[in-house]
Fold each of these.
Amino acid sequence: MLVLGIESSCDETGVALYEMGSDGTGTLLGHALHSQIAMHREYGGVVPELASRDHIRRTVPLLRQALADCGRTLEQVDAIAYTQGPGLAGALLVGAAFAEGLATALGKPTVPLHHLEGHLLSPLLSASPPRFPFVALLVSGGHTQIMRVSGVGQYELLGETLDDAAGEAFDKTAKLLGLGYPGGPALARLAEGGKPGAVVFPRPMLHSGDLDFSFSGLKTAVLTYVRGKELDEQARADVCRGIQDAIVDVLVTKALAAVKKTGMQQLVVAGGVGANRELRRRLNAKAVKARIQVYYPELEFCTDNGAMIALAGALRLAAGAQAKAAGPIAIRPRWPLSELTL
Amino acid sequence: MNLLALETATDQGSVALWRDGVLLSRECPAGEQSSLTLLPLVRAMMAEAGLAMADLDGIAFGAGPGAFTGLRVACGVAQGLAVALDRPVLPVVTLEAMAYADGSPQVAVYLDARMNEVYCGAYRRVGEVLELQGAITVCPPAEAPLPAAGDWAVCGNGVPAYPALSQRLAAWPLGGQRVPTAAAVARLAAPRLARGEGLDPALAAPLYIRDKVALTVAERLAQGGKA
């Protein structure tokens, strides 16, 4: 079974082909991705209208590239999966309109998907994937959630951010330090030269006893600290280090608390912040002590991509989910993951 | 020759099928999002005509100007259909489709652009072709260009929407074409398809006209704002 996946929920356009064998083993055959980061940088953040305008320019060339990479044709595709939500309405609509048009002409069904399901399942694209059940820490610019993943379509929210996402906290504090947009990765690079403990910021909700997060206060703490100060290179690195340690500390503590609470042995870290080296270093160190296994998606699948959508579509169909007849275009910009069933 | 046309630039969407000069067309139900009903209507219309999707020779769509998301739904669906069928795409300017449907030799079109602006375009019929006079613009109703000297008809929902415009246009006859239709898009696209003027779907794009949608960081700073 060959599934085409299309992702267009925010500022990345992704198209991929995933083949599920009759024995239940799958292969990612081809994938193509275009990131709009360079375009939005000039504006200091994602401009939804510009994101939509770019998606519609990119989709056809990316589809052709993905097909050419694996030598398949559209006639061989059995179903078309695409991100139905959550995300930017205009951006979602481009992928949905294209996918439904494509499927209608091919006479094939569609699989409209929840974006976060793609992220949750993305570590299964790795050479040594985790097995169900596992705990997932989903951390990106738009999301910070801890989920129990019992199987395809079986997700339980254990905790989430009450305000800003972890990636948002990275980007917003980076902006305060004049690191541009998106400044998170630049902040993480600078932090590598910072002295641990030189600057200490509060760890919000570290001891709240639940698995929820709050990162919006960090902006104020950083702003208060840097206001009126002339920071030299080292001092800036120290501030970055302080910010990163505060965010990572909370993420690591809560993720491990979730693993302990559920009695599971596997932790999956997905989303763009999952690429953060300090987060990985700290989690890996703790995992050894706690005797658990931590899994990360390949770096190229940490950000939004079409491969995770093609994968999630294939896994859903293999698990017995019904594909939808092609035609109606309906997106879900707001869509709680808890409403998801198989 | 069989041509499908999609038009969702306004909240009154429609689809049309052109078969060697015979036209079928359907309106998306009012009050519903065109995106829900667009493709099911296409299928029903094709079935009624006894045609399979593979019988289509080209896909036309109303490219704009109009509501941004509507333009992208028509463009995205047209691209999807055309890529799957390996057929060309024909973008048609919405204002030209309205001028064509109006039928007068000279028509000034005013389509409501929301945000207290109108899209304006003036067309003159030369033989079978409509020639755009000057450029398509988007501007406040009080600044919209008036028809040049001579006999002109005016049309479009931008006229009744703004008293500032309807008062200035009171001297010209207002036609019944409020919004673009897929039928007019099909009629304009059919001869172009026959002449081989269809595009590769990768090159099909909406025509937004309103292109300044956000300020860059540099522009915000220059205006005394925040980064």
Amino acid sequence: MSSSEPVAAEAEDLSLPRRKKRGVPEGLWIRCPDCSSAVFRKEAEKRMNVCPECGYHFYLSARQRIEQMLDEGTFEEWDKDLRPSDPLTFKDKKAYADRLVAEQKRTGLVDAAITGKGRVRARPVAVGITDSAFIMGSMGSVVGEKLARLVERATEQDLPLIIISGSGGGARMHEGILSLMQMAKVSAALARYDQAGGLFISVLTNPTMGGVAASFASLGDVVFAEPKALIGFAGPRTIKATIRIELPEGFQTSEFLLEHGYIDRIVPRDRLQTEIARTIDYCGK
Amino acid sequence: MDTLAFEQPIEELEAKIQQLVDQKADDPDAREEVRQLRKELNELIRNTYSNLTSWETVQVSRHKDRPHTIDYLSLVFDDFVELHGDKHFGDDRAMRCGFAKLGDQKVLVVGHQKGRTYQERSKCFFGCAHPEGYRKAMAKMRLAAKYKLPVICLIDTPGAYPGIGAEERGQAQVIAENMFEMSRLETPIICVVIGEGGSGGALGIGVGDRVAMLEFSYYSVISPEGCAGILWKSAEHASKAAEALKFTSKYLRKFGVIDAVIEEPLGGAHRDHHQMASRLKMYLSKTLRELQDSPLTELVEKRYEKFRAMGVYLEDTAV
């Protein structure tokens, strides 16, 4: 098969050329990947990790997102004990089992998702977040199981559901077909939640690609996206390798999705609480 | 890819037999030799095909003569009535849908189509469906459920099409919606991977009460080339990725992801379309009868539980 033939892109790892964009690096000054301004780090942090010059949204960890979005002290974490295993005994240049340990050590996370319940401006919500720092936020069995349980509990407890996606890796290759099946599992749970009349707000952040974009992230009753996030199905490199033409400016950004009708609103970070609270007031039970 | 590398000895032996038959058809000694060689040939095919590597399985699943959806439409079903168009954008030729009869049973068939000639293949984008294909499939499945027609999905795609138009028209959105809707569709659904089960593109028509695979098909989170490109930094390592991904029917059965493996004729489906079709037909008829014994609400409940149970993780109950 030549490189011109399409390849399935769910698990494309976008981390390599973009690694420098991730997070606000250590050091007093940082360079914004969007406008190239030198930004005083403390200044960006004060603005929820947003570039003061151009409004570019830097990486935020799942823990930071919880702090920013939920009322202080209201978060109660669910299913903390779920841990990844290595069902395929997968090995590329590195064994998946070793990769997991390294990622856990580096990020302080057990896997790529944190779930639980809390309050947004006093409104109780069930909330799930995927963190792009952990194997590109990719979905394997643990992410899938945590999200499925989250959705089921939101259904039982009649809670509005918020899932913030930061998953450039889509479905996690290292757990093979089991990762792919998580897409169906979480989508099926959402279908039941929908049937029960629940409100699901999906918030897309940079990056949301592949199997995550092609499952729960796209199934919100209301879909928000942070500005200038990379969102899409196939990775840009896969598309370029398939069609062999330059991709248009702004392709697969939040703004591109808004223009093509796939998201409801672009919501800057400092507006997220307000927008979620308002949507719950219109649609919540 | 006319001859697969591992099939070379098989083809050579076949050629030798043919030569003998052509040249010495009347010679009794030669007839005996042919008989002996045919026996050897069968043995050779059997040995080769019972020891295929994952990468060789991928090659068989992509074999140019492997039966495609339209072949099964004529060999397994009767009276196929194609239903075109998604009523939004177009009629994706990589996805075929329509009414058909499976024996006496009326069903709706949905399937990826790859095409055989170059013209067909380029019209079908080599079996890579666009959003309009998935939308069309879902619309027809909804129609089937409305009139209680069982749905049969034949999966055979390298993956959903990666392109500018596909992204503009919501490739991620339609695949997500299809899984969402199929998980609760009130009619029996049987899915069979007949060749390539390429990730989201496969799963977009892959949520059913029963999921089966033909013996030499594969079903994967990512193509071996894509995986090799990312993790080994070069598509040339596709055979290593194929082994690592454990995506052949034998493994998927073990992982509890599929319900059945449909055995292929000696030497693969491409050697005997009719026999393959009759085995597929037998599986579909038998499975459909089983599913039709359950009330629809129970069926949908069980379908949920089936996918809900998938995944492998650790959980500390007492710390």
Amino acid sequence: MTARSPAAASRRPTAGRSARVAPERASLPSGAGEGAGLYVHVPFCSAICPYCDFAVSVGAAPRREAFVRDLLREIALWREWREPFDTVYLGGGTPSILGAGQLGRLLDAVRSHLPVRDDARIFLEANPEDVAHEAVSAWRRLGVHTLSLGVQSFDDRELRFLGRRHDAAHAQGAVRECVAAGFDTMSLDLIFGLPDQSADTLRASLDTAVALGPDHVSCYQLTVHEGTAFGRRRARGRLVEMPEDEQAARYALIHQVLARGGWRAYEVSNFARAPRHRSRHNMKYWRHLPYLGLGPSAHSFDGARRWWNHRGIEAYRAALDRDERPVAGSERLTREELALEALMFGMRTTEGIDLRDFRRRFGVDIAARNRRFVGDCLESGLLERAGDRLKPSTAGLAVADTLAARLEL
Amino acid sequence: MDHVRNFCIIAHIDHGKSTLADRLIQACGAVEARQFRDQVLDDMDIERERGITIKSNSVSLDYRARDGELHQLNLIDTPGHVDFSHEVRRSLMACEGALVVVDATQGVEAQTVANLYLALEHDLELLPVINKIDLPAADVERVREEIDQDLGLDPFDAIPVSAKQGLGIDEVLEGIVTHLPPPRGERKAPLKALVFDARYDAYRGVVLYVRVVDGRLASGDRVRFMHTGREYEVHEVGLNRLRREESRGLDAGAVGYVITGIKTIRDVSIGDTLTHAREPAEAPLPGYKPARPVVFSSIYPMSSREYGDLSVAMEKLALNDAALVYQKDSSAALGFGFRCGFLGLLHLDVVQERLRREFDLSLILSAPSVLYRVQLRDGERVDIDNPAYWPEPGAIDSVEEPYIRASILLPEKHLGAAMELCREHRAATLGTGYLARGRLEVSAEMPLAEVLFDFYDKLKTVTRGYGSFDYEPLDYRPAEVVKVDILVHHEKVDALAFLAHREKARARALHYCGQLEQSIPRQQFKIPIQGAIGAEIIARSTINPFRKDVTAKCYGGDVTRKRKLLERQKKGKARMKLVGSVEIPQEAFVSVLRTERGR
């Protein structure tokens, strides 16, 4: 971390102003200094998925262009940011909905206004329907390091249920195209836990994924949020979530099939073929490293303070029109809150918690404080102990939230 | 004195005692119509709601009889439940006569009989009243027959009334004057006044309700409680006419109130005799028996933060309930609470209902227990009601448990089922007596512990609602009693331990295990639930582990939302009771302990 807070020069006092004092320094993670992450949120999709609760909308071409100009303005407002970025993540929404020219302008602006390291990794989320030979070549030329493809399933019935616009055949073609293009890391997203997803259809999707040979797989459990189409269906009794025991069985199946293919879990939903394919960007969130988020609803964090942009594009734009950073709110995290987050991340990642590091940062000896519970978890195989590390097993990852809620600080 | 009548009303629950009292009060003009609330004497919410009278009260009525003479009728209300039989006794001692109310549709019930016996013990003159004659199901002739056969009273004296409709009320008033005797007593003799009730008044301190038997009691007198020896100055005496009405003195035969300087009801011994300090009577009135708790339970606040509130509430309740005894108690699982002694199950119910309603507290009550007499090997004898203090089995030589004499009235056709129920509850039936028209009275001796749980309910079920039950304490008898521990994940849960007869231990332990299995949410690992006597496991069940939670995504940096969800989850967990490493929601304790009582 640099001595100076990135937001210290901000005209908006809410945006991450901080004066570093000793206790906060003590709560920094040991990985501090690795580099910051830059996230750019592109809030457009060609259609809204019925399970999605991100800030997204369907934007026609003129709206997209206007938005790119907004982003360029926002980037310029962060010139004072000092922490060098070693990841740039274009997420959404569907950033692949933007043309290569637009993406190029964005990356150029980022590089010219912000401290982006030369070896920074560029991440791009894409939807299979946007994958075409020319587009993929353009992404390669733009320097995209990791391409993350939102496949979700290789089963047509499941894809229809999820409201996706591609079919399984197209998804396979898209993955092949991207693999062939030679990205450093080719990743694909799958969703499991659909209400009547059988073990067989899930296994078939996984087998297909394995056969296609991506470097990284994200496998998310379907979460039904209120305020989404699925949420309303559930409220009317038209959608019944998969029973917990079946979810657990499916989750175990995913680990089993992917492990056999050589993909190791490193987080609740993430699997990589080799450590270098792990998402360097996402790991910043989980390790309390600083990140700057641009675009509507994007969140930022400087080690002590978290702030977030306006969610609606109108409010976001209005702030930029006033030459202000579009920050909607912020919070200074207390040591307890940071500790809780660290605990939560620890239970979600195979790295687990470094007990000594945790004690140094937060003054709590997790293992001693929860001697009885940790003992029971070790005995029942939910947690494992490796030196100073307390790590969730596969079964432990499946109940990561509950473990974090149970461990006392 | 010839123009005074002191009387009470004896009735089974719901037979209309309070309504009849209201009508008598109205007919004598003691209450104006617009200030009249139904059931004036029952001034506690629960009494009104349940239609039962818990605390007795009294009222003086002026009645001009048909002979033109003005009479003072002192109606002394009695509690309608056997838990309060000592209070019933005291009220009866203040009277010369009683109205025996029988429901024209239900007939004579066990409680009517039990109270009638009490009244006869006190030589009261009895006047039967058949109530609810306005109802279509009323069968006055059949009830007359029961009054003759079951109660042994003259059916031709019985006055048919409808208290609800106000029918026959004048006949009842006239009957009181003509059938019930006036008090006898010596105005010149040394003072003897029976304290039959007391209330705490926030402004005046303790108000005593007394029946003057001999002598005269006036303000300014120096009086002494003959059993406790305490002495006080009389500040005020008077009559209860719904409101207190001060008078100069109370003469032999009178019923009224006395205010001295007593600050707390604990300083008053109900049933004690008041006499003058200067010219005391030679001996107190007979029949004084201090109330003793027979049923015990621990009361804990649902949230340990409410302990302070509970503590204040207990103090306030105790102001008016001298029979409630309690002391601080603590449980590893439930935190601080109070170990309480009650006169019986109804008393327990009343106390917990009042804590819930009047003080808005959420409570967990441990399983009720009786008081066991334990003879230790070392020769010492200890009385134990709390499983926490049960000695090691090796230290126990023998145990005795309290027995009751139960009286069950039921239609003949349900006799078989009722006898079976009695056998299940370790009752030895003493005999079966035929009452009127297919109705039987079964009398039995059984352990009090056997009626603490579901006996009432089962009796109602097997008799289709027609059975009634009453009991009185009997004596202590040898029993094989064990302490059953409930273990969750190999950890004893102190609040769930219970004392039981060895034969009953397994069934109850299985019930506990089953209920806990239902009400403890799955946790991260398999949780065995066991019932054990010492090291011997007598019941078990298992909660399978929880295997998957919905791990919402944690990407795009919106960690705040996720953390807040987790904070909420942690708060939810803070309301759980931690036993070892297992979280038990308070509701689990409530459901286990409530369903067990099944009332």
